Give the backbone structure.
Amino acid sequence: MTKPEILLVGTMGAQLKTDLEEHFHVHRLEQQTDPQAFLAGKGRHVRAIATGGADQLPNSVMDALPDLGMISCYGVGYDGIDAKLAASRGILVSHTPDVLNDEVANTTIALLLATTRHVVAFDRYVREGRWKSEGPAPLTRGLAGKNVGIIGMGRIGQAIAEKLAVFHCEIAYHTRNARPEIPMRHFPDLVEMAGWADILIVITPGGASTRHLVNRAVLDGLGPQGTLINVARGTVVDEAALVAALCEGRLGAAGLDVFENEPEVPQALFAMDNVVLLPHVGSATVETRAAMRKLVADNLVSWFSTGKALTPVPECKHLQEG
Ligand code: A2R
C-alpha cells in the first residue's frame, strides 16, 4: 500500500522526519530546491502538514494545498498556525498538550533558581578566578515567603505551581477567567498582581490575545527587587520595555527562555549579570521530545484512519464532534 503524503514545514530536528517516515511519505518544504514549484506541482498530493509550535506556518502554504485536511503541530503552543482559518476550511489542527507539562515546569524552576541565586553569574565568577582575587560572592535572596504570581494557570501553570509548593512561596495567578477549583488567589488585574508579586512567571499561550500582556506598567509594578521569568512566548512580553526596565534598574532580574524574534536576542541583555538566557529549551529533553514526536505521529495516524485527531486544538474540536 502506498503511504499517504505529508509535508514537514519548519525548523524541527531530523528525528521527527525519520519517525514520521514509518507511516508516511514525508516531504520537507525547506529541503526542496524550489519550494514554490514543489507546492504548485506535488502540493496537490499532500493531505497533511506537520509543523513546529514555534514556527510560523504561512497561510500561503495552506492555500497551495488543495487536499489539505490536517495540521499536526509539534508543541502545545500553536500561535504560528492560523487555526481559525484552518477550521473555517475544515482543516483539523492538533497539538501536543500535557506530555510536556512536567519538563516545562522543571525548566521554569531551573530558570527561577538560576536567576534568583545568580547561578550563571557565579559560575563565571569562579571560572574567571574572581573567587580567588575578590573573595566570597555577594549574598542572594531565597524563595521562602516570597510572593509568586503565575500569569496563565492552565496545564503547565498548574504543574509549575505544584513544583513551587516545596519552596514555601505564596502563589497567586492571573488569567481572564478565575478557576474556583484552584485553591489560590486569583488576580483579575495583572498590574495589581505585579504590585503584589516578588516574582512573575509567564506561561500563557502566544498570539494576538496575549501580545505585550507584560508591558511597562506590569514591569514597573514588579519593580527593582522583582524577577520576571518567561517560559511562554517572547511576544507575551514587550521586549523593548523589558530591556529598558532592566537597563534603568526599574526591574531587578529576568530569566528568559523565549524571545520576540528568535533566535535574535537583544544584545543589551548579554552584559547583564542579573539576566539568565536560554535558547527556547522549555520542553527540550530527549524523553519529552520523544513523547511529543509520538503524539504528532499518533494524531496524524488517527486522523488518516478515523478522521479524528487525539488532541485537536480548541478551535477545531467541533470539526470532529458527532
Ligand atoms: O485566560 P484564561 O482563563 O483562558 O486562562 C488561560 C491563560 N490565558 C490568559 N491569561 C491572561 N490573559 C490572556 N489573554 C490569556 N490567554 C490565555 O493561559 C490558561 O490559564 C492559560 C493557558 O493554559 P493552557 O491552554 O492549558 O495551555 P498550557 O498547556 O498550559 O500551555 C501554555 C503555553 C503554550 O501555549 C506555549 O506557548 C507555552 O505554554 O509553552
User: Anything to note?
Assistant: The radius of gyration is 22 Å. The pocket of A2R is lined by residues 76-77, 97, 104, 152-157, 174-177, 203-206, 209-210, 213, 232-233, 282 (CB under 6 Å). The chain has two domains: 5-99+286-320, 101-277.
